[in-house]
Amino acid sequence: MTRRQRLSRIAVILFAMAALAAVVLNGVSDPRGTEITRYRNAFLAEAGGDADFNWTPASIPADYLQEHAPVPEELSHWHGLPRTGGTLSRAVALGRALSLKARVGNPIQDSTVRALATIETAGSGYCVDYTKVFSALAYTLGIPVREWAFSFDGFGGYGHTFNEVWDSENRRWLMIDVFNGFYPLDTKSGTVMSALEFRERLLSAPETIGWERLTPVAFGFKTDTDALDYYQGGAREWYLWWGNNSLGHDQQPVVAWASQFGHLPEQLAAMLTGTLPKFKVLLTEQNRAAFNRLIWLKHWLLTAAALEISLAFALMWHLLRLRGESAGYRKIGVNVSAEVKDSPSPLEKV
Fold first, then answer.
1. Which residue of 76, 231, 250, 297 lies most exposed, with the fewest beta carbons within 10 A?
2. How many CB atoms lie within 10 A of CB 137?
3. How far is CA 271 from CA 33, 192, 255, 256, 277, in A?
4. Does the pLDDT of residue 172 top 60, yes or no?
5. What distance in Å separates the CA atoms of residue 344 and residue 33, rounded to the nearest whole number?
6. 134 and 26 housed in the same domain
């Protein structure tokens, strides 16, 4: 292969790598971050069955990332911890303590301890910030807790998340949405609904849902009708996060180190170290196509990564060959120069 041919192949490989990277990165150019979240979710989503949603703290699935990390002093000594009362009263008290500041939006994307401080002092944070802080505080109190979510865009980043706590007195799950400032009541019986009961009522009997406010000002909607429209819009894309280990996530050394470079490196480190939970999709006929597209996206991204790696190896091989050939050309040039220099001139022969 001539030098020109090898340089041409190197140029083609570089172009192919750049084109492939552009295609992948074009999918995450959304400034709201919803598409990069979809890329992440493609590697986290799994189809769930009834047993994945109806377990109790006495039968936690073996692969569920249950919190076991030490509780930081900032949480164990937090002034808002309710020390007495039943599960519901303590959960509501936690929700109210996290709702003293008016919501101002803006993601926190920081450790649980710092997120709690920011929520308290500034009222900042998205729903995911509130759910992870609530989960850690519930864990501090010994209350079993898990986290549900739903999306509006085919399991991308446009959605919502909330908590569910285990009522040990009545042996049932109770839903509480701290960010939007309410928990759902059955208007006929007056009992608090579980997340699955709430979803079923959204689809079949929305008039039986009572929207019990945590505080008069913390409710995230102007009216109950607005709230109903919002939750009905996401009722067909529900999923359960397969872990509640927000403190374990924070305390993982690689994740903690990566977090100083931003949220994306932190998420990648959490995925690589296995501290970022997967999630189980509540699969229905209405969301099966969206779920299948998510799985297809996962396979496409893996294929693109494999192709990019193959191209990188090919590029490296050609560069090494080019370097070796260039060294060979230089050596030949030196030898030719030496021969010319050592050969006698016509005058010397005379």
1. 76
2. 28
3. 18, 35, 9, 13, 8
4. yes
5. 75
6. no
Look at residue 330 and tell me whether its pLDDT is greater than 90: no
pLDDT (tens digit per residue) in 173-206:
999 999 999 999 999 999 999 999 999 999 999 9
Whether the CB-CB separation of 209 and 218 falls below 8 Å is answered with no
Claim to verify: residue 252 and residue 302 sit in the same structural domain: no
Same-domain check for residues 220 and 315 = no
pLDDT bin (cut points 50, 70, 90) of residue 329 is: low
Q: Is residue 38 part of a domain?
A: no
Query: What tokens does 118 get?
Result: 């920011």
Q: 125: domain range?
A: 45-286
> Quick check: 248 and 65 in contact, CB under 8 A?
yes
pTM: 0.88
pLDDT of residue 331: 57
